[in-house]
Design goal:
Layout: E1 10-12, E2 15-21, H1 37-53, H2 57-61, E3 67-78, E4 87-98, E5 101-110, E6 113-126, H3 136-143
Antiparallel strand pairs: 1-2, 2-4, 3-6, 4-5, 5-6
Length: 148
C-alpha cells in the first residue's frame, strides 16, 4: 500500500469508505460537531473516492485544458449529532456521469447509526468556471464504480 493510500480510505464493492475521527476543533462549545464541518467530511469522501479510483486532481489541473469540479447542488440531511471523539465513516457512491454532471450519494455513519446524508450533484468545469464534459479516460475509470 502506498503511503497516501493509507489516508484515502478503501472500497467495499462500489462504495468508498473513509474513516473520520472527530476532534475538539470540529465541535462547538457543547462537544457536538459544528454543522458546516459535515461539508468537509463529505468533500473528503468524494475526493478520496476519485483518488482511489485513479482520478488525480493534480493531473486534471495540469492538462492542456485544465479542469476541476464544482458542487452545484446538495441535499444535506442531519439525522443525529456527531460528538467529540466519535469514529465516523463517510460512505460515498458515484451513481452516474450525465453530460457534465456527476451524481453522488453519501452517508456519514457512526457504527450502525446514520449521522448525516447528502445527495450531491457536481459538474466538471474549466478554469473559467464553464461546464465541460469530463475526459473520456475519467469516465472509463469511474464507470466500473457506478451504482444505480
Amino acid at each position: 500500500m502506498k503511503t497516501d493510500e493509507a489516508y484515502a480510505g478503501r472500497f467495499d464493492g462500489k462504495t468508498h469508505l473513509l474513516p473520520v475521527r472527530i476532534y475538539y476543533e470540529d465541535t462547538d462549545m457543547s462537544g457536538v460537531v459544528y454543522h458546516a464541518n459535515y461539508l468537509r467530511y463529505f468533500e473528503r469522501g468524494r475526493s478520496d473516492f476519485l483518488r482511489m479510483a485513479g482520478v488525480n486532481h493534480t493531473e486534471l489541473q495540469n492538462r492542456e485544458k485544465p479542469m476541476a469540479f464544482a458542487v452545484i447542488a446538495m441535499d444535506l440531511r442531519f439525522k443525529k449529532p456527531a460528538r467529540i471523539d466519535d469514529a465516523l465513516v463517510v460512505h460515498t457512491k458515484y451513481h452516474a456521469i450525465k453530460g457534465v454532471k456527476l451524481h453522488i450519494d453519501q452517508i456519514i455513519m457512526r457504527g450502525e447509526t446514520e449521522i448525516a446524508t447528502a445527495q450531491v450533484t457536481a459538474v466538471c468545469i474549466d478554469f473559467n468556471g464553464n461546464p465541460q464534459r469530463p475526459p473520456k479516460e475519467m469516465v472509463e475509470l469511474l464507470s466500473g464504480y457506478f451504482s444505480l
